[in-house]
């Protein structure tokens, strides 16, 4: 676990620009958005549009695994908005008084990716249990890893009791988040991993092959968003949340492979 020094360093990273922005006055301001790594492309698109539409505003986004983000917020990192990749992390944050009024804003499903050329010959979920297959997965507690385990448990109805355990025995490494796991596969350093369908960007798709998960075995990931109770700029944080939930925000999310939450 990272110690207090890590949180102090992270706080300095976000607070120094905030102090400079505060001295400038005007109608601008800044917020710190803590968002799941799987939201990188969508939130960077939103960041560009939001800053263009709000002169003088700066949106700083800290992308990481949802469990890492929650730990950082618990330890006092300066987050104005929290957007994890699952509802459980948000429920924990709400229970601990770290956020208020969470709202779902996007959904997604999982897929399996393999390196270009599929050297291990993986054709379906069942092949992930084969001897010699190397699977990489995000760290325990990261939503995509938890969702993957649910998919494997669902697949026992088709591949038999103990299937999930046999697949998990093939894990060769745990990565910090879904993007890191996908990168290992794209570099042919592992035979397969689980990702969100929205992670399969055109750039990644050129370097991997996609193994679809049957709908009856797949799971739906729900992304919630909330302003933190320690927000330094609550008004601007709420404006960001409303933008994410707006029609414009929905269009950006859909363009990046996410489905609307409702």
From TrEMBL:
GO terms for biological process: molybdate ion transport. Molybdate binds at residues 38, 66, 178, 196. Keywords: Metal-binding, Molybdenum, Signal. It comes from the Bacteria. GO terms for molecular function: metal ion binding; molybdate ion binding. PANTHER family: MOLYBDATE-BINDING PERIPLASMIC PROTEIN, SULFATE-BINDING PROTEIN. This is Molybdate ABC transporter substrate-binding protein. It comes from Rubrobacter taiwanensis.
């Amino acid at each position: 676990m990272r110690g207090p020094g890590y949180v102090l360093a992270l706080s300095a990273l976000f607070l120094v620009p905030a102090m400079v922005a505060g001295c400038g006055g005007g109608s601008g301001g800044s917020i710190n958005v803590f968002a799941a790594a799987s939201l990188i492309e969508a939130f960077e698109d939103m960041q560009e549009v939001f800053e263009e539409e709000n002169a003088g505003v700066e949106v700083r986004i800290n992308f990481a695994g949802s469990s890492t983000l929650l730990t950082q917020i618990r330890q006092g990192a300066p987050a104005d908005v929290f957007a994890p990749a699952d509802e459980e992390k948000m429920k924990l944050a709400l229970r601990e008084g770290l956020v208020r009024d969470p709202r779902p804003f996007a959904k997604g499903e999982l897929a399996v990716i393999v390196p270009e050329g599929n050297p291990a010959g993986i054709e379906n979920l069942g092949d992930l249990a084969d001897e010699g297959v190397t699977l990489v997965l995000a760290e325990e507690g990261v939503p995509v890893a938890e969702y993957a385990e649910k998919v494997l448990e669902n697949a026992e109805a088709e591949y038999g009791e103990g299937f999930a355990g046999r697949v998990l025995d093939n894990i060769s490494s745990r990565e910090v988040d879904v993007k890191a796991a996908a990168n290992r596969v794209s570099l042919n350093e592992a035979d397969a991993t689980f990702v969100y369908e929205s992670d399969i960007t055109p750039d990644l798709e050129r370097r991997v092959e996609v193994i679809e998960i049957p709908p009856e075995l797949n799971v739906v990931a729900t992304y919630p968003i909330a302003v933190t109770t320690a927000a330094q700029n609550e008004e601007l944080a709420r404006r960001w949340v409303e933008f994410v939930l707006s029609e414009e925000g929905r269009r950006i999310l859909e363009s990046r492979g996410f489905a609307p939450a409702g």
